[in-house]
Amino acid sequence: MDINFFAEVLIGGLLSGVMYALVAIGFVLIYKASGVFNFAQGAMVFFAALTCVGFMDKFGLSLWLAIPATVLAMIVLGLAIERVVLRPLVNQPEITLFMATIGLAFFIEGLAQLIWGSQVHKLDIPIEDVPSEYLMEKFNIIVSKFDLTAAAICGVMVALLAVMFAKTKVGRALRAVADDHQAAQAVGIPLQRIWGILWAVAGMVALVAGLLWGARNGVQFALTFIALKALPVLILGGFTSVPGAIVGGLIIGASEKLAEVYIGPHVGGGIEGWFPYVLALLFLLVRPEGLFGEKIIRRI
Q1: Is residue 251 part of a domain?
Q2: Partner of 78 for a Cys bridge, out of 93, 200, 250, 284, CB 3.0 to 4.6 A?
Q3: Helix 242-262 × helix 271-286 angle, to 10°
């Protein structure tokens, strides 16, 4: 086995895994505070990327002006979702909220294309997709500068979210709401405000993911399917754990790349698309709650 080639594949997979983890954290944020699997997260990624490109194309803004404008748009979108969709459904069964996010996904996808159009857009960000000279000279390993920079951006975003959950007043309120909605309300924590903040933060996470994936694959409807790639990440890491999303993302990213290179030639192409789901299915049989998920005990 060529050790350098193996290292290239592994590092490339881990770097992709960091971006998967960022998308998965968007799900974790909503699930922790409301117990709802946000099926609309992929649509939010698409909406964020398309809105940023739309500001640049239709209004002539530079990237550095379009990003703050899109941040504001995503905050407004998140607050509107909480106010119009979720607030009337407080204390409803989880399946009701889940179905609401499915309808929300279709609405956001349609709204984005209604405002900005449905054609594929190219998104140029100042990160070169060329091999890193340092890694080539020092270790004889070919790794893209884009992958390294994107992983660093995602890593910073993940670290900030982790600190927010662990150290801030809002983070403590989020944990309290996640543990028990009614108890949190009883001690004066404003549930609606916390949900609004959470959806706004999820919108900003979607923006970062949308910009990075849009720069790599183009801003197009296919960005909505990134949410599906986060499912195996959540299954492995646990639906309520930020560290679990990070670890799950790294595992999925590395395993899919290694499987594509070393198993793919023996079973046919396209294994990268379905191998993570097979891995997640096998993992469900062993530990359904995920590596970092909490075991749920129901008394009958």
Answers
A1: no
A2: 200
A3: 130
d(CA 227, CA 233): 10
Task: Provide the number of structural domains found in the chain.
Answer: 1
Within a domain: residue 231?
no
Would you say residue 241 lies in a domain? no
Q: Give the tens place of pLDDT for each residue, 277-293.
A: 999 988 888 888 888 76
Taking residue 15's Cβ as centre, other Cβ atoms within 10 Å add up to: 24
Range of the domain at 196: 18-226
